[in-house]
Every structure is written in structure tokens, then in C-alpha cells.
């Protein structure tokens, strides 16, 4: 017999399997020899009470041998199968490729950036010398933006597809099996590159192709249908094109506009990245001065409304680092990431304000008006930082009081920070929304006995967090997933405005692969 139960375990014993078994036997009033096996299905932290605890969902096998679940995807030999072109080797492109192989189609991935190992040298140049390669950076290259900007797998996309399958594919390619259990799964930037390389090997071993330093320049349309991808390394014919280019590949939007293909402006969010010493967040969330060794660095999630406009935390990175994520000269863009152990001394999170279509006026219904708005703010940030990759920054309380900080705290942003007035960088309504929201967030996250916690001058605001999602949507039919103007062209994931994060992008990549297969039948 199988039975699923809930357990509450203290951090002291969370990794002690014999202790957990004893708790199961006592709680369920079972004899030791009747419990054949147990699996922890889900594990989460509950820090609402005075002492944080782990809450587990556990599957028991009572007087029954365990049925071991083995995930073993079958990747067919597709060397001689019909080719499908995928532009972009981020999670959407890679997972689309794996699904195409399962369906008996040959993926050919065209990636403008470098392989995951070679990207490291370009990232080092950005951080050490402020030298940006517009084709190989934190956004462009194998694995996409997620490879070197965190690897968080938490998603609310359960209704879009099979989240567990995406996690199983990652585990099958080397991710720690904990991602199948933890409520907020996380791989870490230091571990994800090896997993991305393993996924590439699966694609190549099955007969797919992955081509780096290969940038899409144009594509041919014959009789209203995609025919050929034109790149800096030659032409590639395919039965279909999956466009999985990410939200920072602005040249793709311009290419589609040149071809008079339909595009739409899309709301997004913009603000700053806020960094605290991690111990402050731990003390607030865990209600103790020193975090238990079996508890991970704590995260937070904050949201409020200011004048009917949403202000919220985004992509929170415990024990993390703020990274320079510009893709062109003359702009500042910041994001955050964490290593697998989340053992850096800082916690950072995007804190952003909702940007609506009505916020940016245009004489016409210009699909590029929010992208132009976004790019203008990034250029202002570059100038405010001293026309280098140093980012403009302000201590939190100083920002709320509209006071330039005399100095800035120690921080994780390697190119360096420049004290600046962020009111001169951010749009007025964004700055005012943050000014109202931050003290409110502080009231929600105070230290014990009413001491200041979140709202502190030990925290620093770093500008600008502007690439939360695409400010342009590439429309597609809701059933066929094809662009309404071109058959066999499949806009996909974040760059097209249909995903936000590694897992949701992977799900959308597989959905587009399924749609390609249905179209070609």
C-alpha cells in the first residue's frame, strides 16, 4: 500500500534519514518492518513561527516494494530526418531541440554567441576591464541569459506544461536531484554550465546540430512560408523556424519590422536591483540572529500597489551577486545570480515598477515605443555611472529622502558603483513609486523588537533593472503557435513575450516543438 503524508521536521534533523523514519513510524503508528521504503516528494521551509521548520510531503510504501521511477527520455537518431531551424541556444531553444528529437525531427540550433565554456572569458572581460562583447555576454551565448545569471528554477507555470518533466531533464543531464524535491529549486550559476554542455551532447549524439558564432541576419519566405535562415555563416534550409532569441536580441525585432511582419508593444517592468547584507534578510525571515547551518540563505518576495501600479521584487538571489548584463555599448543593465551554495555575503533582488502601454505616448500605435523607452533609461544609467560599466547607485534611505549618498556600502557588483541621484535616471513615476513602496516593504520586513530591517541605509539601490521581460511581443496563433503573417515561423518564449524564466521558457520551447510536429504532419 502507498500513502502520502505530511511531516514537520526541525532543521536539526532534516538530513537524518533514520530520524525521519522514526518520526514516520511514530506519527503513522506503524511497525518498523511494515515500512518498506519512503520517498520525500516535496520539501519546503516554513518560517512563519518562532522556529523555522521544514515541511515535507512523503510517499510511504507499506508492506510493498517501492516502485522506482526512472526518467529515461528516448532521443532518436535524427541525422537524416527533416531539419528544423532553431535560433537561440537558451533554455527554450535547447529544450525545443530535445523535444524535436523525441518527435523524429532534426534540430539545427543557430546561436549568435559562444559555447558555454568560451563565454567565461568574455564575462571576465566585462567584470574586470569593463569590456563588452556585444555577441558574447551575460545574455548571449549557449544556455542564454539563465546560464550565468543564476539558474533559479522556481516557476508558477504549472498550467503551461509539465514542470516536473523539465526538472527531470535537467536532473538527467547532471543537476542535483534535490531540484525534484525542493519547493524553490535552484541549480546555481557555477553548476549550470556543465548541465548545458551535457544537453548539447545529447543533441549532437542524436544527430542534431549546434552552431555557435552564427547570427541570424535574415530569412527567406516563399509563398508565405518560412524557407531559409540567412546567417553570417551561410544559409540553412529548414521545414520550420523556431525563434527563441531571448528578450535582449533587439536586432530580431528590427529584422521583423523591416520585413513588415506584425509586432506588438507589450507591458514590462523596470526599476533597480537592491542589495542587502544577507545576514539582515536571514535575521528578518528566520527570526534569529544566526542562521541554522541546515537552513539556506533566506529569500523574500514583496509586492504592493502604489496609485494602482504594481511594485514588486523580482528574481531574488540569496547569497548572490549583481551582474552587468548590457548587450550593447553605451548602456547599463543589471541582473542577479547565485552560486549553488548561495554563500556570498549579499542578498539582491530586482525591485521593479509596472510599465503600462499608456505610460509611453506615441502618435501612432508604435510597437517599439516601450523598447525605445527601455533603451533610453539604460543609456541614462550609463551616463550617470560615468560612461563606463560602473552602475549608478544610492543607499536606500538616501534614495527615499532624495539625497545623494556620500559613500556606498560594500557590494557585489564587480565593475563598481558610482554614487548618483537615481531620480535623474529613472522616469519620475517609477522613482516616486519606489519611494512610496520601499518604506512599506520595510514595515513588512522588520527585525525583532521593531528594529529597522529591510529599510536601511546598509542596502543599496543599483540601476537599472530593465530587462524583466520583453517590451515587444511577436504575435502567434494561440492554437498553431505560428506567426499570423508567416507559416512555419514559431515565435517562442521570452523574446517573443510568452515566458519568463528558465522553466517557463523550456516549457514553451517544447510546446513550439510539438506545434512544429503537428504542422508538418
Describe the 3D structure.
The chain has twelve helices and 22 strands. It is α+β, with helices and mostly antiparallel strands. A seven-stranded mixed sheet has the order 13-14-17-12-20-18-19. Strands 6-5-4-10-22 form a five-stranded parallel sheet. Helix 2 runs parallel beside helix 5 (192-205) and helix 2 (91-102) runs parallel beside helix 12.
Instruction: Describe the main β-sheet briefly.
Output: 7 strands, mixed
**Structural class by helix and strand composition:** alpha+beta
User: Mean of residue pLDDT?
Assistant: 94
> Distance between termini?
43 Å
Q: What Rg is obtained from the alpha carbons, in whole angstroms?
A: 24 Å
Beta strands, count: 22
Relevant terms:
521 residues, alpha+beta, seven-stranded mixed beta sheet, five-stranded parallel beta sheet, 12 helices, 22 strands, 27% helix
Give a topology summary.
Blueprint: E1 2-9, H1 17-28, E2 35-46, E3 53-62, E4 83-87, H2 91-102, E5 106-110, H3 116-129, H4 163-172, H5 192-205, E6 209-211, E7 216-222, E8 225-231, E9 234-237, E10 241-243, H6 250-258, E11 264-265, E12 268-277, H7 278-286, E13 303-306, E14 309-317, E15 321-324, E16 334-337, E17 346-355, H8 369-384, E18 391-395, H9 396-400, E19 417-419, H10 428-444, E20 460-465, E21 472-473, E22 489-491, H11 493-496, H12 502-520
Helix pairs in contact: 2-5, 2-12
Amino acid at each position: 500500500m502507498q500513502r502520502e503524508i505530511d511531516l514537520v521536521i526541525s532543521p536539526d534533523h532534516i538530513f537524518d534519514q533514520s530520524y525521519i523514519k522514526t518520526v514516520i513510524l511514530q506519527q503513522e503508528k506503524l511497525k518498523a518492518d511494515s515500512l518498506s521504503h519512503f520517498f520525500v516528494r516535496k520539501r519546503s521551509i516554513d518560517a512563519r513561527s518562532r522556529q523555522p521548520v521544514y515541511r515535507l510531503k512523503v510517499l510511504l510504501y507499506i508492506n510493498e516494494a517501492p516502485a522506482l521511477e526512472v526518467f529515461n527520455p528516448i532521443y532518436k537518431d535524427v541525422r537524416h530526418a527533416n531539419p528544423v531551424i532553431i535560433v537561440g541556444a537558451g533554455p527554450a531553444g535547447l529544450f525545443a531541440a530535445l523535444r524535436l528529437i523525441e518527435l523524429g525531427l532534426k534540430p539545427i540550433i543557430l546561436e549568435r554567441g559562444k559555447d558555454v565554456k568560451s563565454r567565461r572569458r568574455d564575462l571576465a572581460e566585462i567584470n574586470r576591464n569593463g569590456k563588452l562583447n556585444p555577441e558574447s555576454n551575460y545574455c548571449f551565448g549557449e544556455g542564454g541569459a539563465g546560464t550565468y545569471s543564476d539558474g533559479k528554477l522556481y516557476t508558477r507555470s504549472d498550467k503551461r506544461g509539465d514542470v516536473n518533466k523539465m526538472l527531470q531533464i535537467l536532473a538527467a543531464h547532471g543537476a542535483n536531484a534535490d531540484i525534484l524535491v525542493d519547493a524553490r529549486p535552484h541549480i546555481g550559476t557555477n553548476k549550470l554550465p556543465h548541465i548545458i554542455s551535457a544537453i548539447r551532447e545529447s543533441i549532437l549524439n542524436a544527430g542534431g546540430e549546434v552552431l555557435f558564432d552564427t547570427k541570424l541576419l535574415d530569412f527567406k519566405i516563399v509563398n508565405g512560408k518560412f524557407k531559409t535562415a540567412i546567417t553570417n555563416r551561410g544559409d540553412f534550409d529548414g521545414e520550420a523556424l523556431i525563434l527563441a532569441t531571448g528578450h535582449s536580441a533587439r536586432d530580431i525585432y528590427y529584422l521583423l519590422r523591416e520585413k513588415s511582419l506584425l509586432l506588438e508593444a507589450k507591458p514590462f517592468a523596470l526599476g533597480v536591483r537592491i542589495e542587502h547584507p544577507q545576514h539582515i534578510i536571514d535575521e528578518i525571515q528566520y527570526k534569529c540572529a544566526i542562521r541554522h547551518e541546515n537552513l539556506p540563505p533566506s529569500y523574500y518576495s514583496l509586492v504592493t500597489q502604489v496609485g494602482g501600479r504594481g511594485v514588486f521584487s523580482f528574481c531574488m538571489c540569496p547569497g548572490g551577486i549583481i551582474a552587468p548584463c548590457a548587450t550593447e555599448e553605451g548602456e547599463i543593465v543589471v541582473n542577479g545570480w547565485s552560486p549553488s551554495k548561495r554563500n556570498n555575503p549579499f542578498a539582491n533582488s530586482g525591485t521593479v515598477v509596472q510599465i503600462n502601454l499608456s505610460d509611453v505616448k506615441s502618435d501612432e500605435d508604435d510597437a517599439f515605443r516601450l523598447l525605445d523607452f527601455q533603451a533610453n533609461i539604460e543609456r541614462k544609467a550609463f551616463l550617470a555611472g560615468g560612461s563606463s560599466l560602473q552602475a549608478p547607485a544610492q543607499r536606500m534611505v538616501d534614495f527615499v529622502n532624495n539625497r545623494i549618498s556620500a559613500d556606498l556600502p560594500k557590494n557585489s557588483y564587480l565593475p563598481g558603483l558610482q554614487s548618483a541621484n537615481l531620480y535623474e535616471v529613472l522616469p519620475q513615476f517609477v522613482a516616486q513609486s519606489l519611494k512610496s513602496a520601499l518604506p512599506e516593504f520595510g514595515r513588512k520586513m522588520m527585525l525583532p523588537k521593531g528594529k529597522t530591517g529591510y529599510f536601511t541605509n546598509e542596502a543599496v539601490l543599483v540601476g537599472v533593472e530593465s530587462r524583466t521581460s520583453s517590451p515587444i511581443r511577436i504575435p502567434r496563433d494561440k492554437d498553431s503557435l505560428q506567426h499570423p503573417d508567416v507559416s512555419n515561423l514559431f515565435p517562442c518564449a521570452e523574446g517573443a513575450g510568452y515566458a519568463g524564466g528558465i522553466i517557463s521558457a523550456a516549457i514553451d520551447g517544447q510546446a513550439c516543438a510539438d506545434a512544429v510536429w503537428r504542422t508538418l504532419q
